[in-house]
Amino acid sequence: MPALPATFNDFLGNSAAVEHLRTAIAAGRLPHSLILAGPSGAGKYTLALMLAMAIECERQPRDLWSNGQSLASFCGVCHNCTRIASAANLEEEVDKAVAIREELKTEADRKDTRVLIQPHPDVLIIPPDPPQLLIKLGQIRTLIQRAHYLPNEAPKRIFILTASSFMKEAANSLLKVLEEPPDTVNVILLAENPGELLPTIRSRCATVRLGALPVEEIEMLLADRRPDVPQQQRTLIARLAQGAAGKALGFDLAAYTAARADALIFLRNAAATSSGNAEPDHTALFKMTETYRAGAEGQQKTSALLRTLSLLLEDLLLLGAGTPELLRNTDLRPELERLNTILNFAWIENASRGVDQVQSGLRRNLLRSLSLDAFAGQLASR
Ligand SMILES: [Zn+2]
């Protein structure tokens, strides 16, 4: 992932939402509790860091518009800005924090230590805690404890929660802070799906939505930033990124195509079964699922497979709904059309539910190969 955009004008898309937030900061009326909602890759985390810089910047620059509107900005070079910007690569920061935890001496210490990222004494970033990838009570306890102290070096204490998946006790605990947030505190909660949050949490936050970018805009962005990628591939990536600029720029088409080849085995196998071929042969299917092992690598591979499978299933639904122009896997259109004549709506719905189940099993850290095999068996038996 690249560094943060140099200015708010370099942030891609959603300019109305960004203006609204900058105006609120400049006027000193940014809500204490804010939900930034939007699809993965829409720039929620990037924008949250930029907002934090605008709030904490030592120089507090403003963009003044001819209509008198004042928009908060950041200098990007002061000691507050640079420290906050150092957390731009969230994945890397989480990996570092996890590595530190793994080096702790005793099992008890490792168990009690929560993953937290602190680029600045007054800015705390709280990611879902691995391996369950949920925000846990210990993390929210740290937030509560720090929220009670005045900021050290900057105007505010800022807490960025990078996902909306909480352990129940953690969510209840967060609610207490949101009920009466101290004046010097800003909580920014990033959510792909705000519906996942407790209604009581949602009702105490202002929600700002970041929408997906149109396919054409992402294609233009790719042409500009990744001219090395052949045009046909850029067209495909723009659709597969589903409106997420960040995702499009970092898209690994080779890895996606590999995962999709496996996902297609599921669909071809199911199609062979339901078209009534005498004795369906599941060899290819189980040979494929066998290559998915437990462990961190297996988990990543399985997640990639499930994501591509769920995109393929959605594409089949789009074909079924008579809207082929919305297809994402455009390069596979002939095959998807063939599959669509064989696999009916009920099968696709059932398969989508199965994908959701395996995904939530992964989140609970069950044995991956086991749940994937069970899923394959379930699909093959119909
Ligand atoms: Zn600054």
Outline the structure in words.
- The chain is α/β, with parallel strands linked by helices and 382 residues long.
- It is 53% helix and 9% strand.
- The strands form two sheets. It has a six-stranded mixed β-sheet, sandwiched between helices. Strands 2-3 form a two-stranded antiparallel ribbon.
- The structure holds zinc ion.
Features:
single chain; 382 residues; alpha/beta; six-stranded mixed beta sheet; two-stranded antiparallel ribbon; 17 helices; 8 strands; 53% helix; binds zinc ion
How much of the polypeptide forms β-strand, as a percent range?
5-15%
Give the proportion of residues in helices.
40-55%
Shape, per Cα inertia axes: globular
Helix/strand-derived category reads: alpha/beta
How are the SSEs ordered, and which strands pair?
Elements (H helix, E strand, L loop, with lengths): L14 H12 L6 E5 L6 H13 L5 E3 L5 E3 L6 H7 L4 H13 L4 H6 L4 E4 L2 E4 L10 H11 L9 E5 L6 H12 L5 E7 L7 H4 L3 E4 L5 H11 L5 H10 L4 H5 L3 H22 L8 H8 L5 H25 L12 H10 L2 H19 L4 H13 L2
Parallel strand pairs: 1-7, 1-8, 5-6, 6-7
Antiparallel strand pairs: 2-3, 4-5
Helix pairs in contact: 1-2, 2-3, 6-7, 9-10, 12-13, 12-14, 13-17, 14-15, 14-16, 16-17
The protein binds zinc ion.
